[in-house]
Every structure is written in structure tokens, then in C-alpha cells.
Amino acid sequence: MWVSDGWRDYALIDCGGGERLERWGEYFLVRPDPQAVWRRSSEDPRWERPDARYLRSSSGGGHWEKFSIPERWSIRYRSLTFHIKPMNFKHTGIFPEQAANWDWASGLIRRAGRPVKVLNLFGYTGAATLSAAAAGAALCHVDAARGMVQWGRENAETSGLAGRPIRWIIDDCIKFVEREKRRGNRYDAVIMDPPSFGRGPNGETWKIEAEIDALIRSVCGLLSDRPLFLLVNSYSSGLSSEAVGYMLRDTVERAWGGSTECGELGLPVEASGLTLPCGASARWQADEAGR
Questions:
Q1: What is the pTM of this model?
Q2: Torsion sign, CA atoms 181, 185, 188, 194
Q3: Binning pLDDT at 50, 70 and 90, where does residue 64 land?
């Protein structure tokens, strides 16, 4: 398991009973977590008196009860600054367990010893984009949601990275990949964080289990002659990291060599000393000679 234990402004205080108690900067939030089916490890009073709590509805969805938080605030990870804002579907704008992947990718970029061009698909609010940019890469950040792309731009500005070579693209990621191939654009690395399920503006449906293999194969057509890495994240219970790893071995590793590793992402739980599994990733990287 890859554990994101480098945070100072975020902490998973406790989890259990289907919820998490988290610290985001100076504010404490309680959010649902369907994997935390065990009992809580502590009687921390902040369970009952958080600054905000997300309540699920019996009919689907849910809403925030906000007691003492601003509309938006900021937290830091290493040299980066991210705006936090409680949104629908319990999200805050950051998936803190992904920090382990940010560190992995930025380390490869720094050690490459050459210019690295990175494509971040389904880029959300830009955390992976900014981490790679801070490591010296040129980025193309793509997301279909205009508000998320704008949020990423704001995170870049507050992180002191507004002047870095980042293209911010509002587009359907699958269609963008096909257009980039026709234009002849190539990338040394690709990061993908596709949703488990989604609908397009014309009623198109996306289900990761049905679409991910075709997307990976399509993305391989965008890789340069010396690709550095390819990272795929999955939050679907129906798609394991090993399944995604199989796809990477059958495509990018078969074509370029290197190695693929698969695993879960985790966050350390302060109250229990254990680690909460939070998602799955498969990561391919070139061998030393290929860098």
C-alpha cells in the first residue's frame, strides 16, 4: 500500500461507523466513508461537534451541515497551496490519499534529466498537475468541467505556479485524446483519474469497467518515443488495481519495457495507528536506460 503520510495541513483523525473525522487545516469535517464499516477507535468529541458534517439522504445524494467554516479556505502540501471548498457528493476539492502519487510522479520528473511533457486527463482541481509543474514538467491539464479547470488555475496562482508552462483545457477527455493524436502531439507521461461513472452532455454514458481498456490503448498512441510514466487511478469497487495493472502490462509495458506496479492508496489513521484504504492505482515507469 502507498501511504500518503507527508501531510501537515491534513489529518485523518479517526474513522468508523461509515464515516471519517478529518482535519483540513484548522477545520474538522465528518464525511461518509462506506469502507469504514468497523467501530470508531476513539470517543473524540469532534465526532459530535465538527465544523461541518456531510449527511447522506435516504433518496440519494446528501448535503452539508456547516457550523463554523468559511465558504473556502486553503491548505498546503509541501510547496503547493490548495483551495478547499465543501461541495456536493461530500467532496472538498482534494483527494489527500493521492499525495503518494504526486510524490512518485514528481520524483520521476526530477530524476529524468530532460524536459518532460505531461498530460493530465480528468485533472479535477489540478493537484497532480501542479505537483508535476513544480518538479519542472510542462503540463496539459484536461477536464470537462469549467469550474474545476478554473479552480485549478486558482490553485496554480496561490502556489506560485501561474507562470509555468501549463495548458488548461476544458474538453471531453476521450475526444481530446483522439484530436491530439490526429494533431501529432505527443507526451512523455500521462496521468489519468477517470470517474467510475458519468454522463456526457448528449446523454453518453461512461462506466470505467467498460471503457478503461480502450482509453489506455488510445492514450498509448500519444506517448513519445521515450515515455517516462503512465499512472491510472480507480475508485471503482468493480475495478481492482491488479486489473488495471494487467492492462498497462499488456499495452505500454509490452511496447516500451519498463515495469508496472499496482496497489492501494492509504491514509494513516491517528486514533488507531492503522491505515485506511482509499483507492487503487496502477503505475508504469520506464527503466533507467529509458529515462
A1: 0.95
A2: negative
A3: very high
